[in-house]
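Revision sheet: C-alpha cells.
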Amino acid sequence: MKNWLIRIRKADVFLNGKQVLNNINWTMKRKENWAVVGVNGAGKTSFMKLIFGELIPIDGGEVRWFGNEEHGPLIDARKRIGFVSADYQEKYAPGTLGLDVVVSGFFSSIGLYRRAHQDQKKIARDWMDFLGIHNLSDEPIGRISYGEARRLLLARALVNRPDLLILDEPCSGLDIPTRERFLQTLEKLAKTKTQLIHVTHHIDEILPLTTHVLYLKNGAVFSQGEKGEMLTGPKLSDAFDCHIKLKKNAGRYWITESRPNKTRRSIKRPD
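Predicted:
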C-alpha cells in the first residue's frame, strides 16, 4: 500500500476562463493532518474542490487518491472523504431533525430522501454520542444554535467512517465560546483513524493534532512543511503580506501583533 492519501502534481486549474490554481504540487501522507492557510482569495476553496474532484487540472496535471497510481473512479474516492462546510448549514430545511441531518451523510444528500436502515440510525446515534450531541436527535436544525448545528454536520461527515475529513472554514460564523467548544470537539477526532485537512485563515484555530501546514498565496503553493517550521512570524508575515508576531500556548498558536508592512513612498523634490 502506498504511503499517501492525496497526491497532486503540476496542477493548473482554470475556472470561467481565469486561472485559479497555478502549478500545485502537494502530497498528504498517512498519519498526517494538514492545515491549509491563506487570506481570502488565496485559492483555498479551489484547492479543496481540486482534492474533491470538482475541479480538474488541465493537460499534464494530475490528482490521485489513496495510494492509487491509476485514475480510478472518482465516486470510489469520494466515498472515503467526509466534508464539513458552514455553507451546508443553510441548505437544510429548518424543520429537518438532527438525526435526519446526520443520517443523510450515508447518502451524501442535503436532507433525507430515502428510508434509513436501523443499523444506519444506530451508527448515526453512536457518532452523536461521541460528539456529545445525542440530545439533538429530535430537534429541528432551525431551532438549535450554530455551534450545535456545526457538530451535527461533523457527525454527518463521519457516519461513513471516512479516511479523510475536509473541514472548510468550519468555525465561520461562530462566536468565540462556541468556536472553542467546536474546536474541542475536533480534538476528539485524534482518537480516531480519520485524517484531517483544515482550511482556515485564522491561525489560532489550528489544533495541536495538526502536523503540517500549507500556505496558499495568489493561487499557488507559497510554502509547506511541518507545523513547527511553518508557524513562525516570518513565514506568516510573508504569506499574509504584513508584519506578524506569534506566541505558542497550550499547543496552539496565537497572533500577538500584526501591522501592515511599511511601504516606501517616493518623494518628489520641488523644482
